[in-house]
Amino acid sequence: MHYYRYENAEVSFCYKYLMFSYNIIFWLAGAAFIAIGFWAWSEKGVLLDLTQVTRLHGFDPVWLVLLVGAITFILGFAGCVGALRENICLLKFFSGVIGLIFFLELTAAVLAFVFQDNVREWINDFFLANVKAYREDIDLQNLIDSLQKLNHCCGAKEPDDWNLNVYFNCTNNNPSRERCGVPFSCCLSDPADSVLNTQCGYDVRKHLKGDWINYIYIKGCIPALEEWLPRNLYIVAGVFIIISLLQMMGIFLARTLIVDIEKTSTNHLKIASGFPFKYVFGTFLYCFPKTL
Questions:
Q1: What is the recorded membrane topology of this protein (predicted)?
Q2: Handedness of CA 175, 128, 232, 241 (dihedral sign)
Q3: What is the CATH number of the domain that holds 182?
Q4: Are residues 103 and 46 in the same domain?
Q5: Residue 165: phi, psi to the nearest 5?
Q6: Range of the domain at 42
């Protein structure tokens, strides 16, 4: 029987548990996102009446929470178990998906820069579609209100965009009390107000357009976003760089572990070279890596 000595024939303890620590946070975060998503759905009664899903005409933020949670949970699970059990298949899956996500992010950023007008039009149509469904979903309503309050804006391009909503439509045959109004999140904030006035937007658009400036924000959210991006370009770029570095760190750890595991498996196969069933033995070691 012939024996061979290799340097670094064992899997690095440091990389193994760095990979585990890196992913346990994402695994737990993914589980938390999924739990929050299902809790939000149960609060809206969707879990009891699944037909409500087909009646939602706007964007439901819960879908985004569940999607992010599911992807994060699966990747965290693959990274944690792959590192602890030294499973090459799970580690390759983890690094491959992270690499794909990074590529998609980079592609989306380049396309958004090249096709700025198309992206602007898409965002405008998306916002208008959700203005129509403002009262149909409480999570969507809170999302739009937060967006308008934080950016001091109203509607997609102007306050009159709220005519698309049946409750705020300014036609004479509209029986809604909110007719010719806007949501309270469009109202100018007054630091002296200690109680939120949810009726401050009633009948505002019955006034002359020149007087709206005294009651509500007259800038649309699309122009407000276009002004916000240049002012915060360094923050946006910094966030993108940090996310990219974290993704590359995950890929580096996974690929390093894969190389160590393959070296270890090769070493075991060399040791078993004197046996007549060396290939069966080597395959067994590869497919069933050692446990903790």
A1: Multi-pass membrane protein
A2: positive
A3: 1.10.1450.10
A4: yes
A5: -90, 135
A6: 13-114+237-286
DSSP H helices, 48-201, are 52-55, 61-84, 88-114, 116-132, 138-151
Q: Report d(CA 145, CA 4) in Å as an integer.
A: 68
168 & 96 share domain = no
| pLDDT per position as a tens digit, 225-260 | 888 888 888 898 898 899 889 899 999 989 988 888
Say how far apart CA 131 and CA 124 lie, in whole Å.
11
Whether 96 has a pLDDT exceeding 90, the answer reads yes
Task: Give the pLDDT confidence score for residue 221 in this predicted structure.
Answer: 92
Q: Is residue 119 part of a domain?
A: no
d(C-alpha 144, C-alpha 37), whole Å: 18
Asked whether residue 61 falls in the same domain as residue 95, the answer is: yes
Tokens 């999140």 sit on residue: 185
Q: How many CB atoms lie within 10 A of CB 26?
A: 20
User: Is residue 222 domain-resident?
Assistant: yes
On the CB side of 126, how many CA atoms lie within 13 Å of its CA? Answer: 12
Write the pLDDT tens digit of every residue in 16-43: 888 888 888 888 988 998 998 888 777 7
Report the b/e string of 202-219 with b at 16+ CB within 10 A: bebbeeeeeebeebbbbb
Q: Average pLDDT in the 200-227 region?
A: 90
pTM of the model: 0.70
- Is there a domain that residue 129 lies in? no
Average pLDDT (83-91) is: 88
- Which tokens belong to 71? 């992807």
Q: Judge whether residue 119 has pLDDT over 70.
A: yes
Give the CB-side neighbour count of residue 140, counting CA atoms within 13 A. Answer: 19
Within 13 Å of residue 193, how many CA atoms lie on the same side as its CB?
9
Q: Are both 37 and 76 inside the same structural domain?
A: yes
**CB 102 within 8 Å of CB 244:** yes
Asked if the structure places residue 5 within a domain, the reply is: no
